[in-house]
Structures are given as structure tokens and as C-alpha cells.
Amino acid sequence: MKIAPEDVLVVVDVQNDFCPGGTLAVTHADRVIEPIHRAARKFRHIVLTQDWHPKGHLSFAARHPGRNAFESIETAHGPQILWPEHCVQGTSGADFHPLLSLPQAELILRKGHGVDLDSYSAFFENDHATPTGLGGYLRERGLERVFLAGLTYDFCVAWSALDARRLDLPAVVIREACQAIDIHGSVERIEDEFREAGVTVIDRITDG
Questions:
Q1: For 28-82, what is each residue's pLDDT tens digit?
Q2: What Cα–Cα distance (Å) separates residue 16 from each residue in 72, 90, 114, 123?
Q3: Domain count across the chain
Q4: What is the pLDDT of residues 110-126, one digit of tens each?
């Protein structure tokens, strides 16, 4: 797939808490780093996202007495999976993985910083209405197609890809540069949504 000057690579949440040793470690999460580096060499434009939660965030199981991590609750914004405390603002767990080296990235977008509203997508909070500002940034920069990589394939990468399509932006997920957590069948479910929304999934970028 040929990469055009108007394409942007969005690298999602490659942070310590999602990698081995982190509080919400995803199996083999650090294996995304080298494929991301290979892909990044082909792009003029790169954006990084960073999960950035305050203490006591809505998504933390510890905030909900009697509830456990990976259970689901209902909130004013819909279902919410409860997670271990992770990516708390200013902690080492919220830092990018030390082997991730993308100094050419043009923007770092922090999300999930509202205490009572989670944010998986790089484009909208989990109410599906409150924008993060990324859509406007891409429009003003003239960036027209979004490639996505990072963590996790079935949550933050996936929601970002689906929201890109909501904004009429072509969305391409680079599968070798993602890892999934696969909670309650989330991979199968999200791939059905990809097909319905017109999200393209490729194994890797081999040209351009």
C-alpha cells in the first residue's frame, strides 16, 4: 500500500502500564514497537496518543466498591469495562515505553483526563460526542487518511479507527503493529464492526 504525503500515522497508547510489567499489561505489547518504527519511516506525519487518567478515574475498578477489574458496569455514557488503575497522570506507568522512539511526531494527544468519562478513541470521548480535537487538527493540516497502530487493537486502536470513519476519513489498521487484549470476545466483535464501517486492516506496510 503506497503512503501519500497526506497520510498520517496515529500511534496509540504505547505506554509502560500496557507493556510487560505494567499494571494493565497486554501480552506481548512491547512487540508492537519495532513494527511501528518500520512503518513510521514511511510517513511524513505522525501523531502519538497517551492515556492520561487522573486518580480515581471512572474506569478504575478500585473506585467501585465490590467490583473487580474486567467487570462491566453501566454509566451515564453506556457500558464501561472496569480496569486496574493505569496510566495515572505524572506516573512512570503513563510514560511512553522507553524503546519507542518517534521524535519526529508532530503532536502528542492526551486522552481520558476527565475523571468521570473514559476515552478509548483518539477522536472522541466515550460519550461519542465530546471531541478530543484530533479531527479538527487533521482537517486543518490537510491530512486525509489515517493509519493506526499501537495498543490495543480491540479497544483504543479500534475505537479510533471507527471514529475516523465517522468523520469520513479512510482508516487503515496495521495489524502487525498492534496487540489485542481480547476481553469478552472483543476482537471478534470489533472486526465485525470494522467490516461494517469500512475500516481496512492490513498485515503490514510493504510499499510506499
A1: 999 999 999 999 999 999 999 999 999 999 999 999 999 999 999 999 989 999 9
A2: 24, 12, 21, 22
A3: 1
A4: 999 999 999 999 999 99
Q: For residue 71, tell me if it sits in a domain.
A: no
Q: What is the DSSP string of 46-92?
A: EEEEEE-BPTT-TTBGGGSTT--TT-EEEETTEEEE-B-S--BTTSG
To the question of pTM greater than 0.90 for the whole model, the response is yes
Residues tagged active-site = 13, 111, 156
Residue 40 lies in a domain: yes
Residue 208 domain-assigned? no
d(CA 14, CA 30): 8
pLDDT digits (tens, 9 = 90+) for 137-189: 999 999 999 999 999 999 999 999 999 999 999 999 999 999 999 999 999 99
How far apart (Å, rounded) are the C-alpha atoms in residues 150 and 140? 24
For residue 45, what are the domain limits?
A: 7-56+85-202
Q: Is residue 63 part of a domain?
A: no
